[in-house]
Design brief:
Elements: E1 4-10, H1 14-26, E2 33-36, H2 44-50, E3 63-64, H3 98-102, H4 112-126, H5 151-159, E4 164-165, H6 199-202, E5 212-215, E6 219-226, E7 229-237, E8 240-251, H7 254-264, E9 280-288, E10 300-304, E11 319-324, E12 345-352, E13 361-363, E14 373-375, H8 381-387, H9 390-397, E15 403-411, E16 445-447, H10 462-478
Helix pairs in contact: 1-10, 4-10
Bound molecules: flavin-adenine dinucleotide.
Flavin-adenine dinucleotide (FAD) binds next to helix 1, strand 6, helix 7 and helix 10.
Length: 479
């Protein structure tokens, strides 16, 4: 690969693709963009035939020191959009101001209002389905109508009308022209009907733009700097090392691999790789009397905001609830054995935000420089204090649901939302990138994605990741 590029983007997931979308809208006809993606194409038919979302095994690319705590990644064109579930909720306005509002965690260096129009654009691109009411302010309606709730969700909505909502989801509720309607089987990782938005079915055309060169199977190892600016990227393809230079370098390799590339490049900061976090998931199975579940029209068909925002956040974690609408979600059968009552059951996930800890991290492994090591010491006491209140939360839900018994309360292995590690902020001492995701010192290096999240929220991250990429690309052309 020879010649100089205007821009190199690393990664083809949500972060890289939405940045490219907005960049190409602004950029002149003669720009040259190189996109480097570590994995292959792994087409939908290949995925379904092999029952895998990536031809690369996670163990080959990172070392997890605590396998009981999973971190899921699906390398290849489209990144984790291949295997995500399509939960597309926005963060709440106060999630951006935890420190100011509740005296905990960190404030984000931008506000909900500043992202609002970008949220709308991402929802339009993904054809997100959602209701006419919403727990947060919105300037535009959802592009697609809401899914049908299950019977337990309908009861919850009736009892808690301003705290229980149809989910905002990129699992289509109506045909979109390129995607079918969600089949609600709970096999969303390998969506059998291609109903959920993916980069492959929604943004693949970006990579066919004549200004863009996409190189698959190209693993970025380091970013070179010269005179305080990023000057080139070194990557490996077919076991050969290649160096290519550009005016602007954009990492969209996820919160696992963005910090690893920077660490290998010797771009140091005391927080680099640290504050790795995601929500603490607790899965609760409850049996119901006379109410049948699993009859909604999508895999998760309710989101509860009863324990999300409020003064309690000073003391313990906020929680978003999701109700699973398939007994086979996450391959965990959850049917009742009782005759004719197999679906008088609700499977509920409580997702608590975690306060990032500096001892949870991605770091280098001197013996395997190509593989980051993930070290996870545990969730914060703040998250645990929220979890401790689950019995009280179930009491509250029993105002709406005829709960017969609580079958199990289990810590989930992951929410699959990898966040932190290259955090953003206004203070260069306490953050690595600024509010536009530009490295504080290396001003032609952007680091996109959930690696920038200074705190978690209980919400799903990918809509915010995508909106942040639009915001960062817009800023580039304004400045
Ligand atoms: C099973 C599952 C379900 C999920 N469900 C949801 C959900 O419902 N809602 C939600 O919001 N989120 C969900 N997520 C999380 C979501 O997938 C991630 O938040 C999102 O994909 C992150 O986007 P990204 O572009 O930053 O990173 P990724 O999607 O991980 O993309 C990073 C890209 O960079 C490439 N790359 C990495 N390292 C290198 C390198 N060194 N050189 C070149 N390329 C590189 C990767 O191959 C990949 O293509 C789910 C995740 C999983 C695994």
């Amino acid at each position: 690969m020879s010649g100089r590029y205007d821009m190199i983007i690393v990664g083809t997931g949500f972060a890289g693709a939405f940045f490219l979308l907005r960049y190409l809208e602004h950029a002149p006809k003669n720009v040259r963009v190189l996109v480097l993606e570590r994995g292959g194409a792994d087409s939908k038919s290949w995925q379904l035939q092999n029952r895998l979302t990536s031809s690369i095994a996670p163990d080959d690319i990172f070392t997890n020191l605590t396998p009981e705590k999973e971190w899921l990644t699906s390398p290849g064109f489209g990144g984790n959009s291949k295997c995500w579930w399509g939960g597309a909720s926005r963060m709440m306005p106060n999630d951006f101001q935890l420190k100011t509002r509740y005296g905990v965690g960190e404030d984000w260096p931008l506000t909900y209002d500043q992202l609002e129009l970008h949220y709308c654009t991402v929802e339009e691109v993904m054809k997100v389905s959602g209701p006419s009411d919403s727990p947060m302010p919105r300037s535009k309606p959802f592009p697609l109508p809401p899914h049908r709730m299950s019977d337990p969700d309908q009861l919850l909505k009736k009892h808690f009308p301003d705290k229980w909502y149809h989910p905002a989801t990129a699992r289509a509720s109506a045909p979109t022209g390129t995607r079918g309607v969600c089949c609600a089987t709970g096999y969303c990782e390998l969506c059998p009907v291609d109903a959920k938005f993916t980069i492959q079915n929604g943004l693949a055309h970006l990579y066919e733009d004549p200004r863009v060169t996409l190189l698959l199977n190209s693993v970025v190892d380091t970013v070179e700097t010269q005179g305080g600016m990023a000057s080139a990227v070194c990557y490996t393809q077919d076991k050969k090392s290649v160096r290519v230079s550009a005016d602007l370098i954009v990492l969209g390799a996820s919160a696992l691999f963005n910090p690893h590339i920077l660490l290998r490049s010797g771009i140091e900061h005391r927080l680099l790789g640290k504050r790795l976090h995601e929500q603490m998931p607790i899965d609760v199975c409850i049996d119901l009397t006379g109410v049948k579940g699993y009859n909604g029209s999508t895999s998760i068909c309710g989101n509860g905001y009863l324990f999300y925002d409020g003064e309690h956040r000073r003391h313990h974690a906020a929680c978003m609830i999701e109700t699973w609408n398939s007994p086979f979600a996450y391959q965990r059968a959850s049917l009742r054995a009782d005759k004719d009552r197999w679906n008088e059951r609700a499977y509920i996930r409580f997702m608590f935000d975690d306060l990032p800890r500096e001892d949870n991290m991605v770091r280098l492994d001197p013996t395997h420089p190509h593989k980051p090591v993930v070290e996870f010491k545990g969730y914060s006491d703040y998250a645990q204090r929220g979890v401790d209140l689950i019995p009280k939360m179930l009491d509250k839900l029993s105002d709406a649901l005829p709960i017969e018994s609580v079958e199990s309360i289990l810590l989930g292995r992951t929410t699959a939302h990898i966040q932190g590690t290259v955090v953003m902020g206004n203070d260069p001492q306490n953050s690595i990138v600024d509010r536009h995701l530009i490295h504080h010192q290396i001003r032609n290096l952007l680091i996109l994605g959930a690696s920038a999240f200074p705190t978690a929220s209980p919400s799903y991250p990918s809509l915010t990741i995508s909106a942040l990429s639009l915001w960062a690309a817009d800023h580039l052309f304004k400045s």
